[in-house]
Amino acid sequence: HRDLRSFPTRRSSDLVDLPTFWGTVAKYLVIVESPAKAKTIEKYLGKDFMVRSCQGHIRDLIKGDGAIDIENGFIPHYEVSSEKERLVSELRKLSKDADTVWLASDEDREGEAIAWHLFELIKNSKGKTQNVKSKIQRVTYHEITKEAILEALKHPREIDMNLKEAQEARRVLDRQANRCCDGRYSLLPDL
């Protein structure tokens, strides 16, 4: 069980209930989509928070024929984009060192998919003995104000798998439609 304790942010008059673990104040990592948001949000949260940007999508369907396993129910296979490998490595290391990681990508199907991909990539960096779901949490906000961000951190939620799967279905259909237009492949397996 987590304790809640008052945690000072920038000013001692701004007290926020945030989780602590094992009786000590935790170091926190917040991952957002955009570098500009990261800079702004980090100013609101204070020195015990690190806010980093994943710079949008970090994984995509693998290139080539193995991207979608049509015969087994259109199962997608992902890879980290080559230009994001260094960033993913950094986020994994930061996640391992943080007591709590908040996935704060946008609250739309793309943002939900980004949060899921981040969760999948960093969950193993947290270690097998820890409760991963309590260490990696999803938060959303509707405006970038100090009050909205602090309120979001008080109310983490599960990743919305319906939104994630909607984005995934759209991406799979996009890939299959592109392949069909190429004329070499059929959208459906041979029956």
Characterize the structure shown.
- There is one protein chain.
- The chain is α/β, with parallel strands linked by helices and 191 residues long.
- Helices cover 38% and strands 20% of the residues.
- The chain contains 6 helices and 10 strands, in the order E-E-E-H-E-E-E-E-E-H-E-H-H-E-H-H.
- The protein has helices spanning 35-45, 85-97, 109-122, 132-135, 146-154, 161-181; strands spanning 3-8, 15-20, 28-32, 49-53, 59-61, 68-69, 75-76, 78-80, 100-103, 136-138.
- The strands form 4 sheets. Strands 4-3-9-10 form a 4-stranded parallel beta sheet, sandwiched between helices. A two-stranded antiparallel ribbon has the order 1-2. A two-stranded antiparallel ribbon has the order 5-8.
- Helix 3 packs across helix 6 (161-181).
- It is elongated, with a radius of gyration of 19 Å.
- The termini are far apart.
- The model is unreliable at 1-26 (pLDDT under 50).
Write a brief caption for the model.
The chain has 191 residues and is α/β, with parallel strands linked by helices. It has helices at 35-45, 85-97, 109-122, 132-135, 146-154, 161-181; strands at residues 3-8, 15-20, 28-32, 49-53, 59-61, 68-69, 75-76, 78-80, 100-103, 136-138.
What descriptors fit this protein?
two-stranded antiparallel sheet; alpha/beta; 6 helices; 10 strands
Sequence-ordered SSE layout with sheet pairings:
Elements: E1 3-8, E2 15-20, E3 28-32, H1 35-45, E4 49-53, E5 59-61, E6 68-69, E7 75-76, E8 78-80, H2 85-97, E9 100-103, H3 109-122, H4 132-135, E10 136-138, H5 146-154, H6 161-181
Parallel strand pairs: 3-4, 3-9, 9-10
Antiparallel strand pairs: 1-2, 5-8, 6-7
Helix pairs in contact: 3-6
